[in-house]
Design goal:
about 230 residues, two-stranded antiparallel ribbon, 11 helices, single chain, globular, mainly alpha, about 75% helix
């Protein structure tokens, strides 16, 4: 019988709150409000949020003992995950083709490292989650880590939207992973290996993102990835 762990449901709800709050703060602070945002960005946001909502629902189903429905909805989760990768690529491509646009306060061709690495880490963690479907403890942790590994854009919008210092983004994101590690220590007396893999992916991503200015080859790689001359 699958162990019921409401922690994963509540963590998913917390992530949804971050996504909704961060996106709303930015959307309503712009002249013209949300209606001034291009339609394809609304679609991107809907796909992004839809996956988080399904993550929470899937966690709730397991807590309610609805494992069969949880498995049937796995295809919907996979479809949304593929859509996140495809739409994410297209959004970044749109940004880097606009010379005036910035990402994370940097020229888009440099700042593209943030969404690109988020997409890569999400793909890795989600794939590991699928590969460990028969291992419930690893599966649920990888799915939660996949969500936390792509929370960066929403977290940044929330922190900056509230007028808080940017270093709180890193602190808040590390706190999410710390919550998972602490949960492991309380319930298992040691961190689960999947939690450590997720934390390792996050640490590697942040090290790369924060040092991107030192890599002279990065702009050329972005141009090749997104068809820039």
């Amino acid at each position: 019988m699958t162990k019921r762990e409401p922690f994963f449901f509540w963590m998913a709800l917390a992530l949804i709150a971050i996504v909704v709050s961060g996106v709303s703060l930015v959307a309503f602070s712009r002249p013209g409000g949300p209606m001034a945002t291009p339609l394809f960005l609304h679609f991107h946001g809907a796909v992004f949020l839809g996956w988080f909502v399904l993550l929470a629902f899937q966690a709730w189903l397991m807590g309610a003992g609805q494992a069969a429905l949880h498995k049937r909805l796995g295809q919907a989760s996979f479809t949304l995950a593929v859509a996140i990768v495809i739409v994410g690529y297209l959004v970044v491509r749109f940004a880097v083709h606009k010379p005036a646009m910035t990402i994370a306060g940097r020229p888009a061709i440099i700042g593209a490292v943030f969404p690109i690495w988020d997409i890569i880490n999400f793909t890795i963690a989600y794939t590991l989650g699928l590969a460990n479907k028969s291992n419930a403890a690893a599966h649920k942790r990888f799915m939660l880590c996949a969500a936390m590994l792509m929370i960066d854009p929403a977290m940044a919008r929330l922190v900056f939207g509230l007028g808080l210092p940017g270093n709180l983004i890193l602190v808040a994101e590390l706190a999410l992973f710390l919550a998972l590690i602490v949960y492991d220590l309380v319930t298992r007396r040691r961190p689960h290996w999947a939690s450590l893999v997720g934390l390792g992916l996050y640490a590697a991503a942040m090290a790369f993102k924060l040092n991107i200015g030192n890599f002279a080859w990065w702009p050329g790689l972005v141009k090749a990835l997104f068809g820039l001359s």
